[in-house]
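The methods section describes the discrete structure representation at length, but only in general terms. An entry of this sort, consisting of the sequence and the corresponding backbone structure tokens, reads as follows.
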Amino acid sequence: MNTVEETIDIAVPVRTAYNQWTQFRSFPRFMSVVKKVEQVRPNMTRWVLGCGPVRHEFAAEIVEQQPDIGLTWRSLDRRFSHRGEVSFRPSASGDTLVTVRIQMERRGVADLVAQRSGATRRVLRSELGHFKEFIEGLGEAGGAWRGVIRDGRVQQMEPEPPRCQVPHWPVG
């Protein structure tokens, strides 16, 4: 597997950066290779990536997600197999350090050329720069999903109310 990692300093609080990152459907507004993102379920997304006439569609499962800390995902596509994580941490100046790490399983000559040329790293660096410009320009997140996901399962956001202990309502 090939691993690519990039970190960027963003001049917004951690909560703001994290909240905007959870708004996957907004990614095509600022990322040049992301053409469409559909949030199928809280832990499942469908992506369309493209560069020029080439398009690739895949599903990704969010495996772990913790508000203001980060999330990890894995693709469900055998042809474009990858895993990734994004983390958010405060910098000394009160800004946010966002780190994205992607592990890709390389297949075929085109993937080998992309790895050797550093194209994947350059695209990741560029897209993080676009995210920085977007969120700093807004100054606040355009929404948020603050749920927790563990082992691919969405955790209850609030405890369920206690259930009535009466087995059956009395009749008549």
In short: Residues 119-138 form the longest helix (20 residues). The first strand starts at residue 2 and ends at 10.
